[in-house]
Structures are given as C-alpha cells and as structure tokens.
Specification:
Layout lengths: L1 E2 L25 E2 L6 E2 L6 E2 L8 E6 L15 E6 L5 E7 L6 E2 L7 H8 L4 E4 L4 H8 L5 E3 H4 L4 E3 L9 E4 H11 L24 E2 L2 E4 L9 E6 L4 E6 L2 E2 L10 E2 L1 E6 L2 E3 L6 E3 L5 E7 L2 E10 L2 E6 L2 E2 L7 E6 L5 E5 L1
Parallel strand pairs: 5-9, 6-26, 9-10, 19-26
Antiparallel strand pairs: 1-27, 2-4, 3-4, 5-7, 6-7, 8-12, 11-12, 13-23, 14-15, 14-27, 15-16, 16-17, 16-18, 19-22, 20-21, 22-23, 23-24, 24-25
Pfam family, one: DUF3048
Protein name: DUF3048 domain-containing protein
Length: 333
C-alpha cells in the first residue's frame, strides 16, 4: 500500500458489503454525443430542454436515519456539520425527480445559503432560530414540515422521530403549486469535460479517500474509486451508502472537499460556516487528486485551478465541507 497523504492514519481495512443493485429508473438522460441539451448540474446529455427548477432538500445523516431515500438521484450533495459533530446533507435535485426523499431534517442558515445559489425550492422539516428568521423573510421559496407535517410530509412507521419524515416529489410539486412557487427555471450550468477530454485528467493517484468529521467514526465518510465504472462508491462509518428500499448504491463522478472556517456560536453548538471567502480544496476525479481552490461564484461552490474554473466529469458530484484539509487522507490501494 502506497500512502500518499500527509495524514498518518490509514483507512480501516474492511470488507465492504456488496448490496444488491436494482435497475435504475429510466430517465431522459442519455450518453448520446449528439444530444442538443445537457443538464446544468451533471453535464449529462438530454434531448429535452432541461427547464426544471432545482429542489434542495435537507436530508438526515444520523445513524438511525440510514440508509436514506433519494440520494442516488441527487445531482449534487453537500455534507456539512450541524450541532456537535453530526453531519447533514443538502441534496440538490434537477435532472431527476425521486419518487420519495428523506428522512428530511431541519434547516440551518448555511444550508439555506447553498440552496439560494441554485435558485432552488428549499425543503426542510424544522429550523434553528436563525434559519426560521431567514425562511420567514421570504428570501427563498420553501416548504417546511413544521407547517405541513402529516400533509405534504409523511411520517414513516418503521423509524422514530425525528428520523422518519419523508416527502414525495409529487407533494413537492403540489406544495409549490399551492403556494404559487414556480417549478421552472434551471440553475446556471457548471463546466464539464467533453468525453474526448477525460483522458487528459491527471493528478496524484488516489482511489480511496477518507474524510473525518470529529472524533466519532459515525460521521466519517469514505469513497472508493472503481476504475471500470469510473465512479466512486460512498461509505459512512464503514457501511456503504445505498438507497433504503432498493439497496441501489450512491455513485458519484466528482468529489470536492473544501476547507473553510467553522465557528461554534452558542451553547447548543450551532455553527457559523464561511461559504463565501474561498480557500483550499481537493478535487477527486477518475482516481486522481488535485490540490486546487474553491470559490463562491454567484452562490455556487465551484472548483478553480490556476485561476480558472476546473471542469467536472459529467455525472453526480458530492461536496464535503470541513474545517481543515488535515482531516482528509487519500491513498492508492
């Protein structure tokens, strides 16, 4: 094993489960090079203009909320710390519309800030006091389970609150219609490689990545690259991230890990996370790592290399937001 990280800790040597993989739902996405259009957040081709508005959903990542539902269909997923060393996800959906999404969890102001960068309809169940003020101000269209619990949001009987709130995409559309929220208008497109450019991707070989949040392994995220598929599988605390019902794995093409300032604000452990200033980052693609920088461009967290936007591999992207890149290790194994 060749250890390539400055971090001395080695990822745990475990046999990872190989969940049964069901056939994915048919979507309008296609790999045809002649496609007239491309989805703005994945770069995947489509023959229909992708005019759907993005939807940003707060998703629970507590161990009792795993496996989650809908994550495999998100174009972009952000993982950030909430109180303590517990992380939550903000899943951005635009190219696909999952039948069901959840468990849905409460909002924090920096998740709202991220959703605004995509002009997304923001979905959450609950809020911190500061997040409640922001949502009440009307700066972002939103649907919240505090108002719609039992109507748009449904409780699952096989899990306990607060880990059992779900919302269907049909109910998202119904809530938008009832409130006069538009469901058209896609976000700005990101930069993607063309197929013939993928072979030019270079960097330090790194096909196993470990991102540590706090002292507990419960919120340690790991990614394993498969050279045959060109995708990364994701793991939480050693367990593969899969869909709850189908066991379909969450697979991503790009992993962006950004370093930024975190501050604990009060005795409850609520945080300030700087999503504006930019800084150091790692970009993992095609089994390689590049040291780059991140910038906030019109509200979106984007990778930059040598002062120019770094291209993404067409497909899904995950973004891990951490206080220090010292919490990241990567190796070739």
């Amino acid at each position: 094993m060749l250890l390539l990280s400055a971090c001395s800790k080695k990822a745990p040597d475990k046999e990872t489960p190989k969940p049964e993989v069901n056939e994915p739902e048919t979507t309008e996405q296609t790999s045809d090079k002649t496609d007239e259009y491309h989805f703005p957040l994945t770069g995947i081709g489509t023959d229909v203009e992708p005019n759907r508005r993005a939807v940003a959903v707060m998703i629970n990542n507590h161990p009792e909320a795993r496996p989650q539902t809908g994550l495999s269909q998100a174009d972009i997923v952000y993982e950030l710390l909430a109180e303590g060393n517990v992380t939550r996800f903000l899943a951005i959906f635009q190219s696909e519309a999952p039948e069901n999404i959840g468990p849905v969890r409460s909002a924090r102001e920096y998740y709202i800030e991220l959703a605004q960068g995509y002009n997304a309809l923001f979905i959450a169940h609950g809020y911190s006091p500061e997040a409640e003020k922001i949502l009440s101000s009307g700066v972002i269209d939103n649907l919240n389970g505090m108002r719609y619990d039992g109507t748009l949001f449904k409780r699952s009987s096989d899990r306990k609150a607060p880990h059992n709130s779900y919302i269907t995409y049909k109910n998202i559309e119904k809530g938008a219609e009832d409130n006069g929220f538009s469901m058209t208008g896609p976000p700005a497109s990101m930069d993607f490689y063309k197929e013939e450019e993928l072979e030019s991707i270079s960097g330090t070989g790194a096909n196993h990545i470990k991102v540590v949040y706090g002292n507990s392994s419960q919120f340690t995220a790991e990614y394993q690259y498969d050279s045959q598929s060109g995708e990364y599988s994701r793991f939480s605390d050693g367990e593969q991230t899969v869909e709850y019902k189908t066991r379909e794995p969450v697979l991503v093409k790009n992993l962006l890990v950004i370093e930024t300032e975190h501050k604990v604000l009060d005795s409850a452990g609520r945080r300030f996370i700087d999503l504006k200033s930019g800084g150091k980052a790692y970009l993992f693609q095609e089994g390689n790592m590049k040291e780059i920088e991140w910038r906030n461009t019109d509200g979106q967290i984007l990778p930059y290399e040598n002062g120019q936007p770094a291209k993404l591999v067409p497909g899904k992207t995950w973004v891990n937001v951490i206080p220090s890149l010292n919490d990241v290790s990567y190796e070739l194994k």
